[in-house]
């Protein structure tokens, strides 16, 4: 039950919180009736009915007809998130490329577009390409649809309080006011009123798993993204853990091997140097050779060690793997599973539940759309 607020501003804030509490409840339990929602949220039936009426009118919710069963009495009408009227844009900013998806509030990808940019230039070159791609995706909308938020997944640490990309190591971008620059670029366009939210790419990838088709059994959820670098996102109790400066999850620079190979950060033996894409996809050995298979198995073992360390630190209910490295399939994943299993057996503990992200190559872009939905429906974060 949310606290009461006496002032007009407090009442407006409370109403917004109650509205979004209904939305988030229906994400986890679609099909609840007004009575069910009142019991779940701790509000009166009349309050819920009034809020639901508003949310239906605005495009957040939709009612479904009840199938007749022959039972006596009027059955409660089930409510669902409306997947047709309010939409989200999500964008992955990669190294030299952007990927934009248009999604429903429930995560269905309605369209997707990609474009490239010159990654040797400043961030403004990327923002120009990103702006064009976002606007092209907007053209997919019908007159009855509205884009209510834009999310960005960026390849580096993000300080939300300062609204800036702190550092993107593979692009050498430092302290870029990325959100402000994009909002400026979108002025005077059909997207000028859509709020823009941004976060690290691994963080938004984690949100893709918890915001769209969430499972209470997967809480806490830890996602490890293996691409050019290695990052992690952790969601606990529906909240994304970002750290004091937005830099939580930079697990690619955890040292796994003392005196190991040189990392881009200048240290040796970091996870990124042992299992990042430049290691996994290097051409030192012919594809399909015994040496290549051994190198891949070793990288899988190091990834398993990293996951074991993170599991010991956070005790997640579920670990999700994502990123381009997942295309390597069981050649990488089997050594990961075997390593986790061996550690668990040695400690007499069950091994962590492990799976691959269901969003494949779109996990960051879809996760960015999930970030927009997350920020819009979490009253304390908006």
TrEMBL record:
Cross-referenced InterPro entries: ATPase_NBD, Cro/C1-type_HTH, ROK, ROK_cs, WH-like_DNA-bd_sf, WH_DNA-bd_sf
Domain HTH cro/C1-type: 23-51
UniProt cross-references to Pfam families, sorted A to Z: HTH_24, ROK
Family, similarity comment: Belongs to the ROK (NagC/XylR) family.
Protein name: ROK family protein
Lineage, uppermost ranks: Bacteria, Pseudomonadati, Pseudomonadota, Betaproteobacteria, Burkholderiales
């Amino acid at each position: 039950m949310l606290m009461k607020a006496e002032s007009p501003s407090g009442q407006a804030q409370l109403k917004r919180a109650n509205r979004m509490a209904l939305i988030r409840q229906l994400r986890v339990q679609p099909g609840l009736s007004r009575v069910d929602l009142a019991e779940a949220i701790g509000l009166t039936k009349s309050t819920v009915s009034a809020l639901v009426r508003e949310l239906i009118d605005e495009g957040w919710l939709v009612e479904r007809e009840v199938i007749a069963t022959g039972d006596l009495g009027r059955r409660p009408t089930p409510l669902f998130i409306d997947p047709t009227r309010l939409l989200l844009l999500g964008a992955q900013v990669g190294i030299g490329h952007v990927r934009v998806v248009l999604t429903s509030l429930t995560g269905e990808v309605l369209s997707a577009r990609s474009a490239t940019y010159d990654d040797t230039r400043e961030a403004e070159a990327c923002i120009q390409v990103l702006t064009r791609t976002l606007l092209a995706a907007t053209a997919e909308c019908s007159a009855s649809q509205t884009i209510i938020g834009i999310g960005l997944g960026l390849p580096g640490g993000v300080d939300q309080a300062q609204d800036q990309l702190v550092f993107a190591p593979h692009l050498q971008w430092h302290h870029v006011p990325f959100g402000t620059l994009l909002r400026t670029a979108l002025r005077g366009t059909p997207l000028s009123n859509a709020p823009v939210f941004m976060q690290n790419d691994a963080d938004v990838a984690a949100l893709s798993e918890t915001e769209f088709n969430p499972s209470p059994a997967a809480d806490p959820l830890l996602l490890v993204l293996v691409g050019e670098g290695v990052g992690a996102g952790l969601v606990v109790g529906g909240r994304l853990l970002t750290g004091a400066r937005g830099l939580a999850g930079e697990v690619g620079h955890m040292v796994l091997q003392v005196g190991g190979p040189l990392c881009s950060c200048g240290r040796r033996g970091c996870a990124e140097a042992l299992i990042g894409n430049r290691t996994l996809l290097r051409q030192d050995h012919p594809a399909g050779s015994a040496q290549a298979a051994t190198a891949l198995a070793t990288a899988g073992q190091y990834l398993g060690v990293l996951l074991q360390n993170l599991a010991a630190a956070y005790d997640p209910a579920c670990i999700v793997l994502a990123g381009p490295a997942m295309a390597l399939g069981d050649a990488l994943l089997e050594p990961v599973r075997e390593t986790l299993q061996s550690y668990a057996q040695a400690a007499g503990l069950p091994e962590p539940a492990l799976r691959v992200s269901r969003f494949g190559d779109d996990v960051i872009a879809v996760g960015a759309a999930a970030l927009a939905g997350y920020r819009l429906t979490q009253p304390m974060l908006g």
